[in-house]
Amino acid sequence: MNWSVSEAKARLSEVLARARKSPQVIENRGESVAVVISKREFDRLSQLQAEPRPSAMAELLEFTRALKAGGDLELELPRRDLEADRPIPFSDDEG
User: Fold this and answer.
1) Which CATH number is 19's domain given?
2) Tally of domains in the chain
3) Rounded to two decimals, what is the model's pTM?
4) Residue 37 structural domain
5) pLDDT tens, 72-84?
6) Distance between CA atoms of 73 and 15, rounded to whole angstroms?
7) Could you give the C-alpha distances from 77 to 9, 57, 63, 71, 88, in angstroms and in order?
8) Is residue 78 part of a domain?
9) What is the sign of the dihedral through the CA atoms of 59, 63, 69 and 70?
10) Mean pLDDT of 1-28
11) Per the domain annotation, does 85 fall within a domain?
C-alpha cells in the first residue's frame, strides 16, 4: 500500500503492522521516497547482499567447463562467405 507522509505519521502503528505482511511505500508529493519493510525481510535482504556471488562471466565459464567435462563438446559454426558483397546496416553507403 502507498501512504502519504502525513498518513504514515498519523497511522504509524498501522503502517508497521502492514509492513509485517508486505512492503509499505511512503510518498512525498506523489513521489515514492521510502519503503517500510519487516525486520525479517530486511534481514533476508541483508543476508543476500552479504553473500559473495560469482560474476556472470565466472558462472558462464563454470557452465562451459561442466559441459566440456561431460563429454565431447563441439560447436558447429556456419560457413561465412567473406567474398560476398553484403549490405552494411546503418551505413550511408549503399554498396
Assistant:
1) 3.40.1620.10
2) 1
3) 0.54
4) 1-66
5) 667 677 787 777 7
6) 56
7) 63, 22, 20, 19, 21
8) no
9) positive
10) 97
11) no
